[in-house]
């Protein structure tokens, strides 16, 4: 069976339930750790294209 390159299948064995505060703290921590890793070893290609930030326009 062929799979589309964008299709990812995972088997869920456990769940982590966090408050919104804890989830944001975890996201900030992961962002910091990933930036440190990429500064040391180079950018990780996860196959997702991130859009360029839009330029802000004054009205």
Structure description:
The chain has one helix at residues 20-41. It is an all-alpha fold and 59 residues long. It has a domain at 18-43. The protein starts with 19 loop residues before the first helix and ends in an 18-residue tail after the last helix. The relative contact order is 0.08. The mean pLDDT is 84.
Q: Count all strands and give the number.
A: 0
Give the number of helices. Answer: 1
Beta strand %:
under 5%
Q: Supply Rg.
A: 17 Å
What general form does the structure show?
extended
Query: Could you state the order of secondary-structure elements as H and E?
Result: H
How would the blueprint of this fold be written?
Layout lengths: L19 H22 L18
How is this structure best summarized?
The protein is an all-alpha fold and 59 residues long. Helices cover 37% and strands 0% of the residues. The chain has one helix and no strands.
Features of this protein?
59 residues; mainly alpha
